[in-house]
Specification:
Number of strands: 2
Mean pLDDT: 84
Strand order of the largest sheet: 1-2
Distance between the termini: 36 Å
Structural class: mainly alpha
């Protein structure tokens, strides 16, 4: 285990992962919401519009784009590799 800084709230914690245990549940919920939005609407919108429509901060959307889970999801999304504006 490493001493990390939470990418959501900035708190320091000792654990694995990108976010602290307090933020983990909200992060998972927002990530699921983002994936659902992309499934329903595609990658046609800018991150600002996606943020407005989902209530997820642009900072967190950018972070989600770097997750390995999202990269796998993106490859499998309708069998296409679309780019996000």
């Amino acid at each position: 285990m490493d001493f990390n800084r939470c990418s959501r709230c900035g708190s320091f914690y000792v654990s694995n992962g990108n976010v602290c245990p307090k933020c983990s549940q909200k992060d998972g919920f927002e990530f699921s919401t983002f994936k659902q939005y992309v499934t329903e609407n595609g990658f046609e919108q800018s991150l600002d519009i996606i943020s407005t429509e989902t209530g997820i901060a642009v900072k967190n959307l950018n972070r989600f784009l770097g997750y390995d889970d999202f990269k796998t999801f993106k490859k499998n999304f309708n069998g296409e590799n679309k780019t996000i504006l």
